[in-house]
Design a protein that fits this description.
disordered N terminus; two-stranded antiparallel ribbon; Glycerol-3-phosphate (1)-acyltransferase; 284 residues; alpha/beta; 14% strand; globular
Length: 284
Amino acid sequence: MEKYNERESLFVEINNILGAWPRNRFLRYIVAGFLKRRLHQDQINEAIMQAECPVGAGFFDDALRYLNITYRTRGEECLEADKKYIFVCNHPLGGPEALIIGSVFRKLYGDGFKVPVTPLLAHLKPLAEFFVPVNNLSSKQSRDLGVRIAEMFESDKQVLVFPAGLCARKIKGKIIEMPWKKMFVTQARRYERDVVPVHISGHNSKWFFFLAKVSRCLKLKVNIGMLYLVDELFKQCGNEFVITFGEPVPYTAFDKSKTDLQWAAEMQERVKALAEGNGCVPNM
């Protein structure tokens, strides 16, 4: 078993997040302390050091056990073990989905899967091999992102994407998923992968939705609630989630009768419908 000492096991390198700002040492110390608390750095390190599998797919289960998060699945019998899919999932939370889906996929496919995630989650060292970092907060992406995305779809691994890009928001009293991007439709045709709709239950706290609303009202380019996503993860401790798989949609179904964006919207509606009968309060 690979061991981590406390300094090496940092979930996020705070200095990497801060970059060159702030230059004032005292202010930098205060900001770094705030980020350390918001990112639950010490608790994440503790989870890593207590894990039976500190590196690899086994850590998905170890992390969920540490958080006392459980789940149940529905519909996985519709999947074929020898087919390569693109799984498309709603994005209600911003953190727990990746851990839960990772645990589910480990049981179904071992370590044969990849998930594009935010750079923040990609810093979780034990699971870095499964995550492809994508910066949803900026239009500027690393030059090799396109190469990494192509390699992911060309591989023999299963691919799961969150087409909304950002987690759900509360708008006019309703929790709403952001409109889905069309990338998965294009890639499904290009790499001849059928698409599997996946729904996961759950939602974030009122505090997170309040911060998102403040960000919109102030017309900020960045949702300040994103700083609290790890907080939101720990607020889910003790909760149970339901993951529902729908019938795979053949890649040949995405024909020219609709635009790729329209196909993406239709798949989003299919995922919403999967919430029916899961015994949970609707979250989309």
